[in-house]
Amino acid sequence: MKRREFLRRAGYGSLAALTSAGTGVIHLSCRSKKKRQPNIIFILADDLGYGDLSCYGQSRFQTPHLDRMAGEGMRFIDHYSGSTVCAPARCSLMTGYHTGHARVRGNYASGPHGWGACLELRSEDLTVSEILKKAGYATGAFGKWSLGVAETTGAPWKKGFDEWYGYLNQGHAHFYYPEYLYHNDKKVMLEGNTGGKRQQYSHDLIAEKALEFVAENKDQPFFLYWAITIPHAELLVPEDSLEEFRGRYEEKPYVGTHYASQEEPRAAFAGMVTRMDRDIGRLLKMLEELGIVKDTIVMFSSDNGPHKEGGHDPEFFGSNRPLRGIKRDLYEGGIRVPMIARWPGRIQAGTTTHHVSAFWDFLPTVCDLVEITSPDGIDGLSFLPAMLGDEKEQREHEVLYWEFHERKTTNQAIRMGRWKAIRHSPTGPIELYDLETDIGETANIADQNPEIVGKIRAHLEKTRTPHEIWELKS
Question: Is the entire prediction scored with pTM above 0.90?
Fold first, then answer.
């Protein structure tokens, strides 16, 4: 019996309809008072590569808590970010649209609100947090936002979050010892970080706020969006994490111009990722101690592929292994990301899925979790059936689509079943790869497959809408 038919027979009829800013109708389902809505936690790392967790093949250091999460849940093998850079990836996650339809399609570092202030979400851009808040959830976001600074319509407290703590401006989030962070709409000055001092590490402050939110909301359904800034390009970490890896690797000191200098960049990178892993372990332990572990689905991913900035050496760590490309590429290494989901008693432990999914699927998956009809017109498809092991009920994408505008020409990419296509200019040739036999995208087989190339070209022509800022550049 299909899940929705089962719910209908069980008496969960339509209770209400809510419309948000013209973006579609959301239907809430009437639920038994005894049945608790699941808590939803989404943890997003920043610039963590497909190969940067030991459960995905990292061997230079270990990530035991995320490995445990994977062992108690499911690893996604074919999961994709919304983009190959930060802001559009986060827009896709929050709104359910790919970069051919999304409001934010690039980092927009030179906008009207200063360097690093990305294009803001509008009032009419419906977010997953707004949907969950209307469904009765407590909502909190902590870390890096990138979708609107304080004075804009895109500020997180205007987009459905009850509590916010962290960086609004993406350029501001480049630095781990900032002079201030935002708590809701107020600047909080970090006195230990003024005058060049480094006393308050932002990741630690953000982690504490995220854990406090969980503890404070344990008795009601909550949505936690923990947008961790690690391991973004400034390679800085407190001494207790650096010391663990000091002397383990041969180092090439990095002399900074924008990011801080670092004498031991490899040790710093390993220390940063393992510190992130440690704090995720604290979260998992808290869920157990609060007695809500079985009521809580936890998902973890990264916003794009690994960077090569600030002294980081992705080749040494195999951060994109076995993929081609890094951040700012539309090859697999720039957009395919780790994805882990754990929900004890619901997601079978120690499983993997090859279901092809992407960030724009998160919003409809959440709607499926809380039995709300997804907004009309979005690009995402719920991957809840795949998570629960019901592959027969899982809908598949005909294509996945990306576009990237931060180069001289617009790059585009399509994933269509086993096929992956790249076009480096709207008027340029199409590269074609068979991901089933060539996950590293080493052999362009476009000439041998003219029919497939023709289908992909047709999709490239119709799978986007015009944008006043991000037009195609040849």
Answer: yes
